[in-house]
Description:
By secondary structure, the protein is mainly beta. Helices cover 14% and strands 43% of the residues. The chain is rod-shaped.
Amino acid sequence: MKKFKALLTGILTATLLSVTATGSITANAEGAKGSITITGTTAGETYTAYEVLEYTAVDESLNADGQFADTQGTYKVTTEWVEFFTSDEYNLSSFITKYDNDYYVTGVNESNATALKSAIQTGSIKYIASHQNLTVAKTVTAKGDTTTITDLPYGYYVIDSSLGAINSTGLTSPSVSVAEKNSTTPAPEKEVQENSRASETFSIDESNGWGEWNDGQIGDTVTFKTKVTLLPKTTNVVLHDTMDATLNYNDDVKVYYAEDAAGNNITEAVKSIAVSAKDGNGFTVSFATEYTETLTDLVYVTVVYTADITAEAEVNKGQMNETYVSYGNGGKTEYDRTYTYTYDLNIVKQDGNGKTLDDTHFNLLAADQETVLKVVKNADGVYTLAVDQNADNVTEDIVTSSEGKIQIKGLDTGVYYLRETQAKAGYNMLTDDIKISIAGSVTDSTNHTAVGTITATYGENDAAKIGNVSVKDNVLYVVNTTGAYLPSTGGVGTTMFYLVGGVLILSAVAAFIVKRKTAA
């Protein structure tokens, strides 16, 4: 045995220690045992040490710095971790040699030491999750950002935490320090669907209009999706979602789809362990710890839910929906957010000389040019699209203010029509609808402001045009004219002349026939 150990020393101990012990090594002799200090810990989280390899030093006498005077020694695989090293699943069998029914680490050098450490850290996540009865060397609960696990036999350890992080270190001196790996739950990925009310077939595919912002009309139902990543061995995982008061959550969140790391559909399994609850103007979805702490690989969960744009929605300003995930004992991801915009239409009514005209009446029509949209009057000339189109306080009649202005709030991108229904006394009424197109764009992604840029067309149905329209500084100017109106060729006026002339001719012919009959 001594001869075999001699073959291991000199090429093993220093190499393993150099790639696994990060941070400073300090003297803290505790007889034949040592301690591991973990820096960067999270208060309230638990940290568990598993001894993967036993270490035997050739000479345990200490030097002046508190280190072993002779750093040579051997690593033997602990009984419960033999399967870990011998199984083809974890790619570790090439690092061990069997001797007298025990397995020893051999063949480690500078070129492959990093690969060994990585294989141990990555594989141990799955191994620990699938082997519930492994012997625990020591478990401690962190009280701050530095935590020490004491009274550990010399060896090689993996450090597991309730955050799902796995790190590893060699303990071949009385004390070593290792930084927490911080392999923590990633932030959720939130998106909102553009033009949700027009989607005939729902899909969470990225090609189906999903993004970080969208446009909508007051009263519209907006659809959101959030993707959550569940890490192996995590606990107390909860998705939190909340939204501005200008969005009204419909209390309809559901697990829409879930898949494992291999792409297998596991939606039904995740539905059975996910519990949703309303939380103010939002919700939580909790994932059972009994499920997440036994995971051996990543799981991706997509939840879907909706909210309505309320009458209080701010125009040209994003209505925010934000989400984050909490986990462990106080762990928390970064936030992810989406923004929903709605726009306004500003109109000035004038005569041919630029004088503003009050008491001019309009209707606002939907893109089909048939549906008249009802509004709520907020102030003189100021209207908001009605959430409930059948409410008692709504009206179709939109009237210019004393200053000849109109503001209509709560519009989506797309096409609307403006129809003049009554001109100011003494002015000719428009003879055709004004087609208005609104295109939205975010102008400030930091302050989340946007603009609905308008374009307008008048007389596109070849109706005789009276007055005209123009757009300046994103304001629609509508001009009415005064004076007699002479219809153009082929218009309603010439048709009337033809009808009257025809009647007179027929009357003359009838009178002539009657006169001849009388003379006969």
